[in-house]
Structure prediction request, 754 residues.
Amino acid sequence: MSPACARVCADAGATFRRGLGFLVAFAMVALLLVPASPAVAADEPALLSFERTSPAVLEAGGTVSFSFTTSVPVKGIQVELKDLAGREYARWLGSEGVLSGAVTLVAAADAWPSGQVQVSAIGLDLVSGIDQWYYRDGRTVPAGLTLAPSFGSLALRDFEIANPQLIFEDPRLTHLGMATEGPLTPGQTASVNFSLAQGAKEVLFVYASSVDTSQQVLTWQGTASRGPLSATASAPVTQAWTPGGYEIDYVRVIYLGGRGVTHYFRDGKVSRIPATVPVPSAALASLTGGNFIVSNPAKALKAMHNTAPPKVTGPTTTDTRLSAEPGIWDADTPESFTYQWLRNGVAVPGATYSDYNYNSSVDGGTKMSVRVTVRAPGYQPATATSAAVGPLPRYIEAQPPEVVGDSSVGGTVRVVPGYSRVIPAGGSPSYSYVWKRNGAPIPGATRGSYVLVPADKSKTITVDLTVAYDPLSKIKVAGKLRTVVANKPKARGFNADGTTDFFARDTAGNLYLYPTNGKGNWLPRQKVGVGWSGFDKLMATGDFNGDLNNDVMARDRSGRLFLYPGNGKGGWLKRSQVGVGWGGFKDVIAPGDFTGDGNNDIIARDASNRIWLYPGNGRGGWLAKSVIDTGWGEMNPIAASAKFSGTNEVDIIGRDSFGYLRLFPGNGKGQFALDAPAFHFQIGQGWGGVRRFDAAGDFNGDGDEDIWGINGAGALTMYYGNGRYVSTHGLDHSSGFKGKAVVGTGWGGFTAVF
Prediction:
């Protein structure tokens, strides 16, 4: 509770004790609403009659009177009355029980304003110890009591007061000034002249020492009068008064015979009882006009020391509340603490409470401290300042990041931070990362990119991105890989080192593996098979059976389709037949995961130039096939480009009769993104002399997938893709490639390259 509130409560309590002492007894009666002993039966009410015997219009100063009769002896009756100024209570008390009597109350001329007076309640104190109450709204305590037919409503007992000499109006303080010049010394009288809009009974000016916690009171008492009042409040200055300045803490005005109390506080707040009293339009006088100074060398004040400094506590997060701990002082009983919050050492206007509502848009990036001033009786005031906390967090806005890259096992995904800003502005953001698999952090995955591992297959991959502008100004936003993690594509190679590899078959039917180092160079070739001359179509499918090793498919001349599972070490597991009737297809290609379900698929073009999709089931078999497009007769041939355009949607490439290389983007859901083949992107020209071409994976390790081609002279040329640029800026004929280079010769003698 603040000192001001404590004073109001104390003053209000004193007023009630002087003016309405019987309220205590009333409160005790009210506490006994439920009697401890049985109630009087409903058909035998205690109160038989209750009549007003005073006039319906009573002159001020007259006596209000009521007569009563009861069916059982009573030793007390009190009547609650309500007028403009609040409540009054008329009581009768007897030493012995009676069955009839009268209750009276004088309507004091200085306390009862003109107007209606209502009878709100009647309470009986029965000799038997039971309390009974009858209320204006018909309620009774104990419940179930009935009123005799002759009794009627309490409203029939209402009356009016005629008191034209008493004005029901707040005695607003309209003037204030010291009557004596200062500094004042012991033996003199401190006097303050004041004026009120209406008369009052008592006016107290409560002063607080600006040095310690002592208070002094200047008082005026008199008789309430109609109209404005001008008077002087005073008190003798003694040697007990603390030297220094005195400021009015509050002014208390008592009026309406003690029933009305108004407090005017130093901070401008006003408290009124009753709250409904009208307020005159006259301006309220400033309380500073009554301040004065005391000179009293006889009273020496001791010095006070801070033994433990103040401290700022509270969470240093955005838009929170900081609190001040005042520290420890060597005074016996410190009674007063005042606070001033400082921003970078400069006082914050109005921030003078023990708590401070930190606003990140204003206080962010600054250091906050608090200066505490302590006062105690007999001591000089002392001040200490806390250590500063901060720089406090600034307000950050950050959009969620994107997660882009190759979403297949072994592929690299990376974080593209969204837009962010900080208020107050200043500095550049830094980033930290925590990758998660199905919501659980992945050990060691704390970089801006992440290589997907077999454990990520079919899992949800997210990243928590922390955007920081300084140590305390940070925010965490989450991004998500929007596609499922797919089985390994053929770009991940055959020998488990994660780099792209090539297969080539010679005229003798020998199959060779040409591994790469992932940086644009070849490793020594390896012979991985013999007797492969019986196949008219060979293709690297990636991991088709879901065992985490990449595989090869082969079609023989009778149209049978075989799966040759890789063992992950550059060798083979037992082959299996996975299809028949494939001889009628002009092209059979392995694009990767064309449907976006995480499993690698096969696409074929039949003699009618229809495009068939054969979705893999991820276990070496098939889901239902379907025709996904028609009218591809102009393309010769078609091939896979994998993820050439830098997204996780697999693309197809084809060459038309004019030697233009076209790219047909997939939509990641088993269809083409555009109305293929009419709508496409032209990514090259002069490809008429290229005998074979296909997707190469990332041959040079720059993060983008490439396309290879072999010309009539047997030169193997690598066309370096520009996928990351394309995924952001779009694809046109000049942006698809970063360049090209011949990376091998003598490849024209092979009967198959894939």
Summary: The radius of gyration is 48 Å. Residues 1-43 have pLDDT under 50 and may be disordered. The helical segments are 3-19, 23-30, 360-363, 723-729. Residues 3-19 form the longest helix (17 residues).
